[in-house]
């Protein structure tokens, strides 16, 4: 008898629950936070709700209590930081109704670095200590070993203060790849071979345009010089990652060619022209890396600009 009563109760409760969910799912109009709270608080289990956070009514995906109230005495873990971001990503001044078609944002650039360190172990340790505040998605050793340290969809902290075209938050747009290298040495073949394989996977998986494979020095010319002058940008371009020019067939630029405009169109931040030119020469001219464009440098710049942009 008791069992029958329990079954009936469960059945009735399930009907109430389904009906309420259906009512919300079918609603095409914006839901006022107070409406949702008023309608559902009779059966929703104990969840810390506030009028600011109606998102959690049916399936709480974030804890609505501000983290500073829960973790006021200690440093947040990375997971807690992400949780806090999800909470603050909800605009308090707007009503909430959940869309059902979405996924995570995907990368559209690859930024290549050298580590300026002496071993892959040292780099991994750097990315795991609290005070460093830097990270990358991948680290590739001199022997070609590839270590992934963040999911491709997560935002690594590798670009720092940087700009490319009109993009001022490269970390949000990109995957960061660190090559184990002390900053003054060539990159061994096994390391480059592993890099090429990884780039091929990333390019296909996320449909990244070939022009969007660039170096840290490209996006931060006043602060960075990586990857160093030994990095084989020409080989990469031949495989479809980044840009290069045909040394055997260079077209002369017209008399009114403006090199600074061309650098800007390619993506360089020209607010410091000398730094932008130096970054361009380190990558494409390789020798005599300075802030002055020779006639030959202008010709190379024109050919890259004309070929890709
Ligand atoms: Zn870097």
TrEMBL record:
Pfam families linked: Amidase_2 (PF01510)
GO CC, any one term: outer membrane
A single BP term in Gene Ontology: peptidoglycan turnover
Xref: InterPro entries: Amidase/PGRP_sf, Amidase_domain, NAMLAA_amidase_2
Domain of life (superkingdom): Bacteria
All copies of domain N-acetylmuramoyl-L-alanine amidase, residue ranges: 97-228
CDD domains, alphabetized: PGRP (cd06583)
Molecular function as annotated in GO: N-acetylmuramoyl-L-alanine amidase activity
Name listed for the protein in its UniProt record: N-acetylmuramoyl-L-alanine amidase
Keyword Cell wall biogenesis/degradation: yes
Catalytic activity field: Hydrolyzes the link between N-acetylmuramoyl residues and L-amino acid residues in certain cell-wall glycopeptides
């Amino acid at each position: 008898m008791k069992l029958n009563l329990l079954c009936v109760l469960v059945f009735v409760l399930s009907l109430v629950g389904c009906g309420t969910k259906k009512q919300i799912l079918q609603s095409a109009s914006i839901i006022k936070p107070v409406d949702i709270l008023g309608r559902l608080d009779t059966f929703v289990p104990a969840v810390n709700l506030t009028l600011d956070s109606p998102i959690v009514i049916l399936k709480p995906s974030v804890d609505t209590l501000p983290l500073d109230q829960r973790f006021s005495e200690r440093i947040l873990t990375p997971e807690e930081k992400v949780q806090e971001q999800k909470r603050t990503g909800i605009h308090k001044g707007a009503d909430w109704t959940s869309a059902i078609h979405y996924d995570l944002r995907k990368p559209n650039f690859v930024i290549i670095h050298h580590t300026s360190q002496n071993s892959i172990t040292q780099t991994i340790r750097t990315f795991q200590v609290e005070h460093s505040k830097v990270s990358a998605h991948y680290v590739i050793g001199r022997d070609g070993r590839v270590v992934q340290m963040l999911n491709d969809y997560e935002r690594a902290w590798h670009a720092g203060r940087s700009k490319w075209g009109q993009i001022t938050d490269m970390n949000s747009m990109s995957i960061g790849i660190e090559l184990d290298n002390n900053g003054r040495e060539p990159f061994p073949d096994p390391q480059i071979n592993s890099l090429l394989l990884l780039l091929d996977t990333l390019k296909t998986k996320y449909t990244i345009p070939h022009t969007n494979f660039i170096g840290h020095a490209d996006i931060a010319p006043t602060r960075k010089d990586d990857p160093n002058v030994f990095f084989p940008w020409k080989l990469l371009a031949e495989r479809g990652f980044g840009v290069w020019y045909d040394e055997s067939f260079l077209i002369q630029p017209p008399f009114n060619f403006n090199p600074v405009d061309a650098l800007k169109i390619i993506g360089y931040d020209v607010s410091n022209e000398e730094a932008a030119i130096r970054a361009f020469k380190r990558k494409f001219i390789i020798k005599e890396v300075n802030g002055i464009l020779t006639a030959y440098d202008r010709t190379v710049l024109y050919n890259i600009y004309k070929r890709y942009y």
